[in-house]
Amino acid sequence: xxxxxxxxxxxxxxxxxxxxxxxxxxxxxxxxxxxxxxxxxxxxxxxxxxxxxxxxxxxxxxxxxxxxxxxxxxxxxxxxxxxxxxxxxxxxxxxxxxxxxxxxxxxxxxxxxxxxxxxxxxxxxxxxxxxxxxxxxxxxxxxxxxxxxxxxxxxxxxxxxxxxxxxxxxxxxxxxxxxxxxxxxxxxxxxxxxxxxxxxxxxxxxxxxxxxxxxxxxxxxxxxxxxxxxxxxx
Length: 234
Hints:
The protein has 12 helices and 2 strands, in the order ααβααβαααααααα. The radius of gyration is 21 Å and the shape is elongated. The chain has helices spanning about 1-10, 20-35, 40-50, 60-70, 85-100, 125-140, 140-155, 160-165, 170-175, 185-195, 200-205, 215-230, and strands spanning about 40, 80. It is mainly α.
């Protein structure tokens, strides 16, 4: 972890000039987003400071209290566990994306991410799941979105070739799809992107320590839509 956290703070040239409260926010971000942990407690935050070669604030507990209260940057602690407010996380998400020179998320121009205007799905379960996805997305239920998207993707790729349906895991199904040269270019490209997405892996679906966040869903959405638009067997 020591190497990873130092690589993370090196993204920000002025990190060592940040005040203690701001450093706490970035370290909590690292722990919960980069390390895929649900939250961070005070002992873990102290350890992150040490791993990063930073002095642990003497009044760490007071600063955490301020950030949870008047500072409005952290959610009220749950049994001593701290999480970032959604708006703070989004701001750091954007800073990290810019620092890593990652492309901006693709803008979805349809009525909604799970709306397919003029399209009728013959697979009634997919139609039902898309309706549930609309509601989950509206209420920011990201883990539910991730699980439902996995189910939809699996049902879609099962229809492209009988050999795909014989595979047992979603990763294996997508791997098999990549061998099918008769698929359109847009479908093959969407499958390539989906294959490496966090929500596709079994760990994201079953590991109690892994949670799906809004950026994980947004990263997949454009390719999810391309897949559903390109496969006409559903």
